[in-house]
Amino acid sequence: MADRRPRSVAGQVFVLQVALVVLLVLGAVLALVLQSRSDGDREARNRSIAVAESFANSPGMAQALTSPDPSKVLQPLTETARVRAGVDFIVVMNTHGIRYTHPQPERIGGRFVGTIEPSLAGRVHTESVDGPLGEEVQAVVPVRSADGKVMALVSAGLKVKNVTGVVNRQLPVILATSAAGLAVATAGTALVARRLRRQTHGLGPTEMTRVYEHHDAVLHAVREGVVIVGGDGRLLLANDEAKRLLQLPPDAEGRSVKDLPGLDPGMAELLCSGRVATDEVVPAGDRLLAVNQRHTDRHGGPPGTVATIRDTTELRSLTGRAEGARRRLNLLYDAGVGIGTTLDVVRTAEELAEVTVQRFADFVTVDLADPVLSGEEPSGTSADMRRTAVSGIRDDHPLYPRGRMIGFVPSTPQARGFGTGRAELVPDLSRAPGWSAQDPERAARIVEYGIHSLIAVPLKARGVVLGVANFWRSQKPEPFEEEDLALAEELVARAAVCIDNARRYTREHAMAVTLQRSLLPRALPEQSALEVAHRYLPAQSGVGGDWFDVIPLPGSRVALVVGDVVGHGLHAAAAMGRLRTAVHNFSTLDLPPDELLGRLDDLVGRIDQDEDDSDTIAGMTGATCLYAVYDPVSRRCALARAGHPLPALVHPDGKVEFPDLPAGPPLGLGGIPFESAELELAEGSRLVFYTDGLVEDRTRDIDVGLELLRDALAHPDQSPEESCRTVLEALLPAHPTDDVALLVARTRALDDDRVADWEVPFHPEAVAGIRSAAVRQLEQWGLDDLSFAAELILSELITNAIRYGAAPVRVRLLYDRGVTCEVADHSSTSPHLRYAATTDEGGRGLFLVAQLAERWGTRYTAQGKVIWAELPLPGAGSPAAGGAGTLPFDVFDEELL
């Protein structure tokens, strides 16, 4: 028995290979048989589904099912289709499984054998059953009505024996082919075994085992990779460690090194170069490999090289940690530079999201408490927040959109972080029931979308939690870790300070805007001398001290004023309000422009002196003002300025000039008197007052701004409203750095027929004649109802001018929105209203004037003074409109009668 056994490895290999070939052929035959049967079964199922669906969707199916006798209509159709389709049966049934058709007519009306519930739900169902025809492979499909409901079912199928019969007919062919293959494989195995016998030189099993053990000990027991490359660049040998380190495919040996997939190009170049290398570090994928390479033909061996490879990835790991630290530092630096570039709460939140997307998280959302957006601190412990910023690598995410008000439930990380002020890490969102309790449906969509990990960090500044920043991860499969949590906390801590600064600025800005709007005129007063349009635009950085006003004066005159307080914020707005109030008060004195600015300058100086030295708020020094008074009767305009830019004058023909007014110092400096200039304006001229923010800009010289203003105003037919719009479009940048006040006034003239003027002889007897002339003038104007009051007022004023004033005396009546009675003389003596006692014979004249007139007063001129009184037009509801019957008789002075 021992002599019959093979004595060499070649013989053993021959027997083993023959056995393997036989097993492979048998396995192939078995696989082919099983595959053939599987293909037959699949073909039967596919044919059954196709036939059933075709018949179920055939035209007229719905009509046949709704006919009085569906079996009569459908039975012949199913039999014809069955024969042509090559199936064993086609059965039509109702939704209860009762057959309408069957290849065996006696079974019509019986219950279908099979499962119909999936098809009643609208699905196609296939199965193998033991039916009336035997073991069958059948498919059941639904028949739908026009509204999509299932109204019937159709089943088609084949008997199993018809399916397997095909396989049985193919089996002889398969066996014959397998036998031929076995014969060819056996012959090939014999040839290979003969060649192997020559190569092993007839070594026995013991010798071959010893050689293999030595080979295995050398190549696979060491923790260094060994690679042998032939002189033609082919890989001859690679041990297990080399394959692991170089990620070589199983069939790498025998292939060209340059063609090996996955091998790093640098490593391939070194192995093919044939040069000697000593501890040369080569990157290969995510590893750093130290390579030693020597030639194999130094002692007469075959040409080629042998290389040993060691893994030095720890060095790369240290380098990676250093690179990660560098990236984190860069991110923190960029966050410090990129977050908080503006004092806008929403923009700061958006900057936090934009800086951290992709570099730290795939999606970032910022939720802030609603009061924070308006500049207030969060009130209460409710976790209701508004989504303020959303940023991510894609726009089709299922996260809550921006602007959504979200009421976080207590179990969510956001609510816990908002309440405790501590960051929350959720490594796996799919296993976080507290988070998904907020919105289960949306939470399922988020997880399905691929977002799997979350860090929620409260935005806490100065001990107050303002909101929560959420960092979501989707692309990187690893969840967030504790190291990521520390980085997120540091990023959010910096952003929280910026958001809090923006919140406080928003609050102060809102207070300043509220104050300024309450101080600026909300509507211009009614007057007839000027057609006025105005604009005020605050700077991007906040409200400032620019202001304007239109003040009606006696005698149909109007005062125009524009001012500018240097600076921005609450102090500038408050200073502007004080100046505007002071101008209103001084204008009631009816002072010339230069005197009014002088008093305003004294007031500002006193305010600056009253400022506490310890107060960090500066005074109003640096305020400028331009004040003008326009008289529609004389069409003359008196102007004076205190450090303010020159106004623009647009003539009716469109010519634009900047009148050369005397330059006065800014308000508050004191010591230098102001001067005024007087211009005569044609009717239809436009006066343009503005602040320096309109013409001055960092990007252009002031002369360029004035030329742009000149070009924008050079349109003769523009209304004041159109002029404002044109000027702002031409001169203002997209984001102005200073606030702008603009006032455009087009002049009107009071018609000559609405002005009556008389010179009064300087003796008491002249009073009666002037009274009569005034009454006649009022009758010409159709104001007979005012005759009595005007007559009494003129009598008193003219009498006082003759008694206490100086010649010459002039009387003027103006008919505008009311009737103004003016008496001028060359005396600067000021009349005083007093209340006469019962026994006094005089002293009731000015009291009578005050009772009859809507208002009265005195203004001083270069030649003396003018005493004036205004009467409202009839129907205005004043005492004068009702006549003198409402006055007590004892107020009349003896001279008036």
Oligomeric state: single chain
Shape: elongated
Kindly estimate the percentage of residues that lie in beta strands according to DSSP: 15-25%
Total strands: the figure is: 30
Largest pleated sheet: 6 strands, antiparallel
Overall structural class, as computed from helix and strand content, comes to alpha+beta
The averaged pLDDT comes out at: 82
What count of helical segments does DSSP give?
23
Q: How is the topology of this model organized?
A:
Layout: H1 9-56, H2 61-65, H3 70-85, E1 89-93, H4 117-120, E2 125-131, E3 134-144, E4 150-159, H5 160-199, H6 205-219, E5 225-230, E6 235-238, H7 240-246, H8 265-273, E7 277-284, E8 287-295, E9 304-311, H9 313-338, H10 345-356, E10 363-369, H11 370-373, E11 384-392, E12 405-407, H12 413-420, E13 424-426, H13 433-436, H14 440-449, E14 453-461, E15 464-473, H15 482-519, E16 530-537, E17 544-552, E18 558-568, H16 570-587, H17 593-610, E19 624-631, E20 636-642, E21 648-650, E22 656-657, E23 676-680, E24 686-690, H18 692-695, H19 702-713, H20 720-731, E25 740-747, E26 755-760, H21 766-780, H22 787-804, E27 809-815, E28 818-825, H23 845-852, E29 855-860, E30 865-872
Antiparallel strand pairs: 1-4, 2-3, 3-4, 5-6, 5-9, 7-8, 8-9, 10-11, 10-15, 11-12, 13-14, 14-15, 16-25, 17-18, 18-19, 19-20, 20-23, 21-22, 21-24, 24-25, 26-27, 27-28, 28-30, 29-30
Helix pairs in contact: 1-5, 9-10, 9-15, 10-15, 15-16, 16-17, 19-20, 21-22, 22-23
